[in-house]
Amino acid sequence: MSARNRNSRRDFMKTTAALGVGYWVAGRATADDAPKPNESPSEKVRFACIGVEGKGSSDAGDAGKFGQVVAICDVDDDRLNKAAQRFPDAKKFYDYRDLFDEMSGQFDAVTVSTPDHMHAVVSVRAMKEGKAVFCQKPLTRSIGEARRVSQVAREMKVATQMGNQGTASPGLRKCAAIVQAGALGPVHEVHVWTNRPIWPQGVARPESKPIPKNLHWNQWLGVAPKRDYADGYHPFAWRGWWDFGSGALGDMGCHMMNQPYMALDLRDPISVMAETSGHNKESYPKWSIIQYEFAATDKRPAVKLTWYDGGK
């Protein structure tokens, strides 16, 4: 890998600026990406796996079962070296940009299993270079990012999938079909709740601490606003922080709201209203109750969906 300095924060933001068009790295597919004349369509798909521990461990494992993992990337050297024991032939990187710069012509697809705030920028870079993308849920941190990711997927015509395991099972579609068949009668209200958060929320920014030797902190921050390292960000509790995660709703909403969404075609709410414990602009509220109003359609009456998290 190239020797990117741990303190190259300014260089990082130049290449993947957090605001404006510069956020979306304008890579492109090259002739090297095209199938070679002697390659068979049955050749194994070559994967680059970005984020290889936590959910990334099973994502990389699945990629290895059905294809060939040729590159692995993680900002934590301990996690990267652990994954290298499983994929000894894969080249190691701690900066996803180095991976693309050095190996773009040598793989076909990418798994993205990073914290939420890096999903969009990594996925767009991959798609711009003609790669198929499997990105963990939630797809992005914001609506704007989701729209941009969708736009690039359409433009590049690449294969994409969001990692949402429950939706991949037949049970969800069966339940949706039962509701659509009228087994419950007309549905006017939906209530969805979760035991999340199971990490700290509604708390102040923690005290700064020295960066662990195994962690490339600037690369972990990525496109997020600069801040000092502290306990409680890596490797798990980042979900509760505004700059990195998407709280309980982002973590579990895609698992639990997808069934009523599919059954009742809950698109384009006409109103969304949230009641919360309060927001300090650092971490997500301790609890929230969110009400979505959906207008009637030719297939169902108006629907009110209420989401609950935090145990209130």
Description:
This protein is α/β, with parallel strands linked by helices and 312 residues long. Helices cover 30% and strands 17% of the residues. It is built from 10 helices and 10 strands. The protein has a 6-stranded parallel β-sheet, with helices on both faces. The protein has a 4-stranded mixed β-sheet with strand order 7-10-9-8, with helices on one face. Strand 9 (288-294) and strand 10 (303-309) form a beta hairpin. The longest helix is centred in the middle third of the chain and has 14 residues, at 143-156. The radius of gyration is 21 Å and the shape is globular. It starts with 8 loop residues before the first helix and ends with a strand.
| Strand neighbour order, sheet with most strands | 3-2-1-4-5-6
Main sheet makeup:
6 strands, parallel
Order of helices and strands: HEHEHEHEHEHEHEHHHEEE
Shape: globular
Mean pLDDT across residues = 88
- Rounded to the nearest angstrom, the radius of gyration is 21 Å
**What's the N-to-C terminus distance?**
49 Å
Portion of residues within helices: 25-40%
Helical stretch tally: 10
Strand content: 15-25%
Low-confidence stretches: 5-35
Alpha-beta content class? alpha/beta
Tell me the total number of β-strands: 10
